[in-house]
Input
Amino acid sequence: MASVMTGEGILTGGKIVIVDRDYANFLKERGYGTMEGEELILLPEEALYLSEDGRLKVRNEETGKEEGFQSLAERFIRARPELWTRYLIYRDLRKKGYVVKDGYGLGLDFLVYERGSFGKEPAKFLVLGFSEGETLELEGLIETLRMAMGSKKEMILAVVESRGDVVYYAVSHVGF
Output
């Protein structure tokens, strides 16, 4: 059985910071967060996932009080309404054993590493997420697909259905 470690994060300036080095290293080895100096900064999706799973307690730096999953979700969604869709996709991929990183502003939601490949190989999948019924512009999709092909990655559309289930579609090309 994989080891499970719990720790604490601090909500400061709208982000979650892990300052305990042991817990930060534990998370970093498993593909969570980004190092900024001596601190590990978690994406909102990462913090929500770890909080919901009971592996992260978050203390609000301003109030000194613990923020539970519900209050964190509400806070993050107020700032970024699309976050709930991203979180549902993130959680689904993590539960399936993938390491999921931010798309780094490439017009993508996530870079996804095959199971067991994080830290050894580049991400294999580029994931673009949508809610069921959301409009998708074809030109943007084609441009993103070209970028995926240029970086030798597979492009996946992740659609969150009204019940919260996530359905994945591989996007490929014919004669670009």
